[in-house]
Queue: 4 jobs
Job 1
Amino acid sequence: MPLTLLKYGLPGDHVPTRDIPPTPDLKRSYDVAIIGGGGHGLAAAHYLSKYHGIRNVAVLEKGYLAGGNTARNTTTIRSNYITNQSIRFYKEAVSLYESMSHELNFNVMFSQRGQLTLAHSDSTLRSFHLRAEMGRHNGTRISVVDQQQVRELCPHLNMDMGGQHEVVGGLWHEDGGTARHDAVAWGYAAQASGRGVEIHQRTEVQGFDIAGDRVAAIRTNRGTIRVGQVIQAAGGLNEQVARMAGIELPIRCFPLQAMVTQPLKPFLNTLVSSANLHTYLVQSSRGEIVIGGGSDPYQLAATRSTLDLKEQLAHGAVQLFPFLHNVKLLRQWAGITDMTPDYTPIMGASPLKNYWLDCGWGTWGFKATPVAGKYMAETVARERVADILQPFSLKRFETISLINEMGATAASH
Ligand SMILES: Cc1cc2nc3c(=O)[nH]c(=O)nc-3n(C[C@H](O)[C@H](O)[C@H](O)COP(=O)(O)OP(=O)(O)OC[C@H]3O[C@@H](n4cnc5c(N)ncnc54)[C@H](O)[C@@H]3O)c2cc1C
């Protein structure tokens, strides 16, 4: 064994710093309890403690920090949605990513390399013109590009001229990018816990004590706590957690899978997606090709992956980049996504006065981590739903004010 390892490793004066302290005992009460220690719950904790001075906060996480969908997503960040409400919301998300490393004093490796959505038919191209108009109207960087421009943006792409999947153009979204998912979660966790927020891992919410129209206490596997206010950000288990509080959500769970190849030399400098092929690809900073697609077509609350989906994604990836045909796959995984009927999240008030919802994030919620955290914190601090969140209320399903983003979500997330 090297002597320097003994010399510096054994004495106690070179103790590594910890980004978050070990899980403490639960206190008897908290001003705010956040259910779910994923990106959304942790971001809300950060904003509550930094911008609203609310620090008597417990984040209750049944597993380990950010081990839910935050750990499983493919990190597409973009604002090229269809409706005004969504574009405005996700545009702010992108701008918060642009300054996130500075905000968190933590390198989240935000890489704004643009997203290219491929059109394989003239009708798709026509719908892209609408999206580009909507995006530009709301101030995002987005345009329809022709075949030649697609070639320039993505020189290694198989254009399949004259073939079944000929690329006839695309939707180019310069604001699109990616970030390290674990860095985002750990950055928020480190900031929040540095200001006194308690992060309780292995702490499962198992029930609620309701008094009138309020949650009085939360029952966990480690004891019961009294709470002033509650934020629910439980990812794939949002429907179940809400039901424990007596709230029925229009959410159903579907598995979403992804996979990653061995590292390759850099060849892909944009995010590329094809709704026709139900496939999108991005090259990670390590050179791996991350490949994802649409949700599994059946409800299931499980994180197993399937050969069927792997074959489908491999088909799409090789169609777009034929030289990937002999590349090795390293991993395949799945998350449980909490899907809403209009492919849009549910944020804000619930039937219980002190219980706030941050759910229905389905296959698209990583990009929203900072903006949801920011405005959920504002909502709780002021006990009034922030203006930007108003369109995303649970009530929209009663008033038939749905925000249909199915076309913008498909296989792009
Ligand atoms: C394969 C895949 C690819 C994706 N790709 C993208 C993408 O490219 N771009 C994008 O924007 N989004 C993407 N998403 C979606 C994105 O991952 C999620 O929308 C986002 O991570 C949701 O964050 P969250 O913090 O709300 O949930 P999570 O990260 O799931 O955190 C919720 C936490 O709540 C905890 N919890 C649940 N029940 C309880 C309980 N009873 N008590 C205590 N804790 C509980 C869970 O353990 C979990 O850690 C993808 C998802 C998957 C699965």
Job 2
Amino acid sequence: MNSTANTAAKPAKTVLISGASVAGPALALQLHRYGFTPTVVERAPELRTGGYKVDIRGTAIEVCRRMGILDEIRAKSTDMRGGSYVDDAGRTIGELPADIFGGRVEEDDELMRGDLARILYERTRDNVEYLFDDSIAALAEDADGVTVTFDSGTVRRFDLVVGADGLHSNTRKLAFGPEERFKRHLGAYISIFTAPNHLGLDRWETYHAIPKKLLCVYSSSGETDAKNLFIFSAPEDVPYDLRDVADQKRLLADTFAGDGWEVPRLLEHAADADDFYLDSMSLVEMDRWSRGRVVLLGDAAHCSSPASGQGTGLALTGAYVLAGELARAGGDHTVAFARYEERMRPGVEQNQKMAEGFVKEMTVDSKWKIALRMFMVRTLPKTPWKNLIAKKIRDGIQAAANAVPIEDYTAPTGTPAAPHPTVTA
Ligand SMILES: Cc1cc2nc3c(=O)[nH]c(=O)nc-3n(C[C@H](O)[C@H](O)[C@H](O)COP(=O)(O)OP(=O)(O)OC[C@H]3O[C@@H](n4cnc5c(N)ncnc54)[C@H](O)[C@@H]3O)c2cc1C
């Protein structure tokens, strides 16, 4: 008789996480607390600190509090004062205060993506093994674990593998199949890069609309440079090599060639930027997020595109729920993965739906529609129903931000999870 036939699989202990941005290090933080041994592999040679400002709202704020990182997040607040739309000549057309833009609102914490990635990395680096400049080349699962072959040639065993490697997830490709099966382009591209703050902005966003395009330049609290955001609509995937940064920069320059305002100067800065980011605004839609001992987290599982403003919050919440469920199930991944997905999925779908609507609103396709939008921007703050409209927008966003209910995994119903440490500043 086979002596192992009736033996339950041993509880998972070692977890390989692919991706050291937001979801990956957040999961590592929680798993380490619960007694697991996480290892994080990141393709980039060092922590990537680029990116625009990201929002943490609703449930995600409570998640950060429980992770013990909320005070650090608040210390890095962008502290935005508001923003304005400008015309071709740089003249202000209309202003919007911070309570419409976010940033200073009670129920919305906002910081730079790079600052958040750094906070999570600093919190974990002493207790978690990080493997930079490497990537998973192959996964071979058996009854007891997963044999992982890395690009570097190293071969190691892990109990579980988590793909937290973003929209173009390598783990998803290896375990579930090609990206095209799961990625749905929403009809727009986004580019972000850092450049000198030549407009002298102080915690202020400056928007400029062009048919089918939108630009935003801003500088947040404590930043000497400015962030530059370019959005353009493109109904189909573009014929550029988006794995090649030089080709991405060419795409941006070709798309905005001949446009006015500060565009020529900003494109010059784009050419020199070393944190240049360009990607399609896409959703990742999957029937399931786990297969055997492999599970996906954050954008890898359910990217809602930057338009939702919820990708980071969902990545943090997902990390909290996945770690909590693994702890509660005593490392039984079959139970934990199912519960994680069950808890996250309805809220994720609500946010993805919202993102689709937002992408359509980001750009408008003609000059007269821009003029109409500018008329509304100018008149809205003077109307008696200004607060009503702002409240309606905020309520919609808050509902989506609270769409994933979280449990207190410090009071588990199953196998006990270790208590959270005291939250420190
Ligand atoms: C440099 C950068 C800038 C960004 N800027 C913005 C922004 O301005 N606005 C916005 O809304 N969102 C931005 N995002 C996306 C945003 O961070 C995510 O939507 C959200 O925070 C969810 O995070 P995530 O950890 O699931 O995925 P991501 O933040 O996309 O992180 C995925 C991580 O996996 C790594 N990775 C990719 N492939 C591999 C591989 N083969 N092996 C190992 N690691 C791999 C990536 O380098 C990255 O560190 C940015 C992401 C990055 C990486």
Job 3
Amino acid sequence: MSGQPHLIARVLPEYARNEQDKSCHFFPLPAGGGPLPESLRAYCGFHIAPGVAEALEGPAGMPCTTCLVTATISGNTG
Ligand SMILES: [Zn+2]
């Protein structure tokens, strides 16, 4: 059951301009715990810059539906 590790993050409130920014997105992490990439691309294709995002310990607020579904599928299939 250990599938694709992912990070949950969202754009900081002061940078969030729309509903997609305010949603928390799921970002695939490098397998094996390598360093974080310079920029992160969520499962839904949403691009986030590390400086304007905060990592969350779990889904908070409104999750991005596309990310949620994709992360769930990835986690199940490895
Ligand atoms: Zn998303």
Job 4
Amino acid sequence: MSEEFAYSQEKLDEELRKYQETFKKPNILICGQTGAGKSSIVNFIFKDEVAKVSDGEPCTRDITLYKNDLVNIYDSEGYELGREDYYKKMLFDEFLCKDEHKGIDGEESVHLVWYVVNGASKRFTPYDAELCHKIRSEKYKLCIIISQIDNLDETQLDEMVQSVKRQTMDVVGIKCFRTSNKEEAINARDEKGDKYTDWDELIEWSMDQMPEMCKDRFASAMKKGLKEKESQAKKRIIAATAAAATVGASPIPYSDAVILIPIQTGLVLAVLNVYGLKFAGGAAAVAGLLTAIGVKNAGKAIAGNLIKMIPGVGSFVGGVINAAVAAAFTAAIGEATSVFAYKQCEKAINGESDYYVDINDFFNSDFMNLVNQILSSKLNK
Ligand SMILES: Nc1nc2c(ncn2[C@@H]2O[C@H](COP(=O)(O)OP(=O)(O)O)[C@@H](O)[C@H]2O)c(=O)[nH]1
Ligand SMILES: [Mg+2]
């Protein structure tokens, strides 16, 4: 990096600190009897194997914490018949009623409870309903998941759903979703053409319940949820665009566009992370590449061609970056990153690739072309 294009390390650190605030770890409690399919649900939704899938053997005792670097799962094995009181005491007195699990911003705050009932049991008991009432009355976000619905015929499934609804209709804000990890059940449709399984709905609802500061990491942790990842990326783009506009409020010469690098680096990191993409080199590598390609290429483009394309630009004179250009340039980098990350993530979901990107390849000429294309369309609006 030449002196001329040196970004401020201090500003970059500040951006990364701000970014960390949006990247808190989500904590989910998943309740359900051994064999209900809890681990299978967790492993269906999340990328890295978080919970071990038992093979009919119990592998959890009371509450077990499974964690990776993106999400914490508290796994509670549910009640055994005859030991309902023990379970209730354990779940509430020893866990949910404790201060460290309440609220939203503690390390151990429980952000969401998934209450799993095995569809194969064909029963949602009054005791299940009582526990659900109590979980909600302790102010936790809660949904009921009817799992393994491939074990039910249509009538049985309908009865099960109705039974859950009937017993929980007075519980405010509770939802019920149906799941199965069997391909046939996931792809099956009823005569109206609706799916039987609610995986997408479960993911969407869960994302909505998460506090804002946990949404990025929740999106990142998910195997699926491309839509959720994309919409989180959009939020980061909007925030960075606003920050860049503030920087550009006192116009700067294009050669000083490097002043935007910390913001743009924070943005690129956030977007790659939201899609769950890993890369080597960290912030310094991204900042270095953005400096090289961003300032030199886009800076020139802004100073040269683009200016000519903007008609009647009182706001943009002689290669100066003002608020509008700083914002558009930053948004273009964020949007291009999101487009490329989306494609990579889609390939990874389909097993055609993995979640790793070589950022030297990532910021290639196609990327810069897309940035310039987005940039000129924004500035020519
Ligand atoms: N048919 C069917 N079996 C499932 C489904 N989900 C899990 N299983 C099986 O049920 C058993 C228990 O699943 P697991 O996820 O370990 O349950 P956990 O004890 O609640 O964590 C395992 O043998 C799974 O393969 C499903 O959707 N359909
Ligand atoms: Mg398990």
